[in-house]
Amino acid sequence: MQAWCFICFNGSVMPDTPHIHRSAAAASNPLAQEPLPKIGLSPEDLAQMYRTMVLSRTLDERIYQLNRGGKAAIFGSAQGHEAAQIGCIRGTDPSRDHYLIYYRQLTAMLALGTTPLELLLGFLAREGEPLSMARQFPLHGAHPRVDLFSFSNVVATQVPQAVGVALADRMRQEDRVTIVFFGDGAASQGDTHEGMNFAAIHKLPVVFFCENNRFAISVPLRKQMAVENISSRAAGYGFPGVTVDGTDMIAVYEAVSAAVARARAGQGPTLIEAMVYRLLPHTTDDDHTRYLTKEEIDLMHREGDPIPKAAKLLRDRGLLSAAEEQTVKAEAQRTVNEATEKAEAAPYPPVEEMYRHVYSNSSGPSGKGSQ
Amino acid sequence: MPTMTVIEAVRDAMRGEMRRDPRIFIMGEDVGARGGVFLASEGFLQEFGESRVIDTPLAESSIVGIALGAAVNGMRPIAEIQFADFVWPAINQLVGEAARVRYGTGGRKTAPIVVRIPYGGGVRGGLYHSQSPEVIFAHTPGLRVVAPATPYDAKGMLISALRGDDPVVFFEHKRTYRLVRGEVPADAYMEPCDKAEVKRPGTDLSIFAYGLMLHYALEAARLVHEQDGISAEVVDLRSLRPLDTETILDSVRRTSKALVVQEDTPAVSVGSEVAAVIAEHVFFDLDAPVMRVAPPEIPPMPFSPLQEAAFMPSPEKIAAAIRELAAI
Ligand SMILES: Cc1ncc(C[n+]2csc(CCOP(=O)(O)OP(=O)(O)O)c2C)c(N)n1
Ligand SMILES: [Mg+2]
Predict the structure, then answer these.
(1) Cis before B301? omega within 30
(2) ipTM of the predicted structure?
(3) Which CATH number is B197-327's, of 3.40.50.2000, 3.40.50.410, 3.40.50.920, 3.30.160.270?
(4) FRET partner for B63 with CA separation of 20 to 30 A, picked from A15, A28, A336, B107?
């Protein structure tokens, strides 16, 4: 009897035969063995990436605790997505590039300099939350320092918006790249198609970065599409599409760097599909045991956790001792503890604040008629 | 002063503003070589080139979504929706997204797009070239929604919309495009996007209308004045969000009677809001119930000519309602 492998989407699996998962096949990234200068990352870069991943995981776990304690509202965990996000951000230039994210980019936010305190103020909806003044779900709004934003909870609306951002850069001949994050679920939306098509026609500097965690809440890939890879759709628009192992930060970094270089050279968009595992349920409100077996969940944690994988990569290169590993963890814990204390002490924004920012106060179509 | 039709005024406003402000560009279906199906951007491709006059694929959600992204990144896009009947695929990017950009980012980002939408019936357009979907947008905090009726207002309000910092949904009645002609200054000027205007002063009752209905209401007011000596005031709402309640209430306080005329079906419509505002604030000034002239509750609007005519309000129907209201 053959069964679906939930990891591979359409790999038919014989229950008792050894089975190589698609991500494992993709993982044989030759670059992982290359000397660092050739990759374009220094030992300090790698260490930094690793530290951010650990910080993200620590913060992620804390938010879960706060949610379970009734303090933090809903959260879509980034556990399992850390390497994809850190690798992606590393391949870009935060001093000039644009980032349109969705709700799962906790690691990307940290990589772009958002502090754990700022993020926790968001999760607890406290005053001082910098992205949306605590009007929105966590991670929505606009970053105070980097051009990163997420207006909406409506899946895939950011895709055509990102294309418009890139169009504006093109019109002003500014050398910036727009990176738009979306999930496998978002790949099914018409907005994703419309945005990609337009970006292709105008060869716009966009990187379409799909974090394919194999599920849209509970709906597996095989019920979302009849092809194996989302990246294969790029051919239909006329630009390159690649699938990378999203648990391998170097592989993702390489793919994104190449896509960014292509975009900067005026060669147009690239679609990158980073295969990752969503180690936890869709959000704090979901229960993935309703649609995954215990074996599948265990397997996913064994195969798909990018953090031990990154630690091994650093150890293999002599960049991380056992003692250092502990220090990194302890440091992250301390940072998150401090941020939690401060965030919990912050007040809620006052009610009067909710009336601001509906309309401009500038001249033109504005003024006291505003409702 | 030159005279222009509504479509010429729209074109004149866009051309002048595009010459003035390099951030302004137009995108939509057939806006390039064709000049738009109504010729709003006729000659623009030659003057401004392909980078500022963008023929898009046939995909409304991305027309608005891309315009929105460009606006957030410093541009001033004009997105043209070919017909109002085809704005539905873009509702999400307008109502769900554009309206909330400023609010949802605590004012860090703004989305100054102008979405121009030819709308309205009485053009033998049937179910899919006659719709008036303005109420959907007028219901949405964060959007500005206007429906100018005259060439003068079309030009001045479009210039204001393009110089403002909010998303504006700009409704242009298709029937007025070539039907209505009027004086329009050659230079740029700004008409406010949030003010109604008394287009004909009167003392016996107030009529509230916008778009094509404004012209029908003016015609009806002229008729009843000549034939019955009734003095009807006609207020052009112009802005549907925000509603200029001050001007509306002021008019009703003076005339004590209100007639709302609209081409959209009446239930839960712009006219409902006008009636509600009147009931809320000047109930004791009223000498008669608020009356409405509006189509029946069927999907707008039948293609066949007798049915279309029966669906649409007309100067005669409005005149009949005026006489009835005046007699109370
Ligand atoms: C248009 C829309 N439909 C449905 C939802 C509810 N919803 C939120 S997230 C989600 C699944 C998204 O999956 P994917 O794009 O793969 O992202 P992931 O959560 O897996 O990272 C759904 C159905 C939504 N937010 N927006
Ligand atoms: Mg997913």
Answers:
(1) yes
(2) 0.95
(3) 3.40.50.920
(4) B107
Cβ(A277) – ligand 1 distance below 6 Å: no
Terminal CA-to-CA distance of chain B, rounded, Å?
43
* Extents of the domains making up chain A: 42-233+250-263+275-337
Closest alpha carbon to A23 in A310, A224, A243: A243
CB contact under 8 A, A197 and B57: yes
pTM summary value: 0.94
| Residues of chain B contacting residue A350, judged by C-beta atoms under 8 Å apart | none
CATH class given for the domain over B3-183: alpha beta
Superfamily, domain A42-233+250-263+275-337: Thiamin diphosphate (ThDP)-binding fold, Pyr/PP domains (3.40.50.970)
Tell whether the torsion through CA atoms of B202, B207, B210 and B211 is positive or negative: negative
Q: Which residues of B are catalytic?
A: 129
**Do B70 and A201 make contact, defined as CB atoms within 8 angstroms?**
no
DSSP secondary-structure letter at B157? H
Residue A249 predicted with pLDDT over 80: yes
| pLDDT computed for residue A39 by the predictor | 82
Angle at A176 between CA A171 and CA A177, to 5 degrees: 105
Judged by a CB distance cut-off of 8 A, whether residue A362 touches chain B is yes
Task: State if residue A210 touches ligand 1 by the CB under 6 angstroms criterion.
Answer: no
Closest residue by Cα to atom 21, ligand 1, is A183
| pLDDT the model gives residue A251 | 96
Domain ranges for chain B: 3-183, 197-327
